[in-house]
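I had to read the description of the data format several times before I understood it. For illustration, here is how one protein appears when written out as sequence plus C-alpha cells:
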Amino acid sequence: MNQLVRMSHLFPADTVKEPSPEHRIPFAQSGAFVCKFIIGEPNDRAVCCGAPVQDGKSWCAFHRRIVFEPARPGRLR
C-alpha cells in the first residue's frame, strides 16, 4: 500500500483546501483541465481527483503541493 506524507505536515505552508470528493472521476474518463492525481491504489479502475486545474497543469494546487518537494536553501542538485 502506498504511504502518503503530506508536505504540509512537515513544513508550514500556505493553506490550500483539499478538493471536494464530488469532483472524482475514473481516470480513463478524465479529460483536459482536470486534476489527474490518482486517489487510492493505481489499477485498472483508478479514480482521479478531477478538480479543475489552470494553465494546462496535470494536478490541482492541493495535489501539486504533495507531488513536488519545495527546494530547500543550500541544497545541491
User: Anything to note?
Assistant: The chain has two helices and three strands.
